[in-house]
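Hi P.,

Sorry for the delay on this. The queue was packed all week, but I finally got your sequence through. Input first:
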Amino acid sequence: MADRTTPTGDESAHDVLAAEEFGVPSPDPVLHHHGPVTLPDDPSGIAEPHDVLAAEEFAMPAPRPGVGGVGGSGAPAGSRRALVVTGALVVLALRRRRRRRRRRNRHT
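Then the structure:
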């Protein structure tokens, strides 16, 4: 590890934000547009819209009713049941363990 020394009062700051170190100039008045911006024509020469967004071309399928969406929890009913059963088994195992410990403590 590098030796860390306590800075003395005469040291100047050495961590400087880039925004403070490199100032941003003001806007160039020559490049300022006073009216609407005129865009160049399409280089392909086609006048009607022809670029299709991928989201429109390859739409995502809708979820099945009851599986997800606004009203559902997003988890299938089978996985919810498995979660409840697993939780119940954990609770039973913890109770059984506690009873065994109590019995051991009574006999010692």
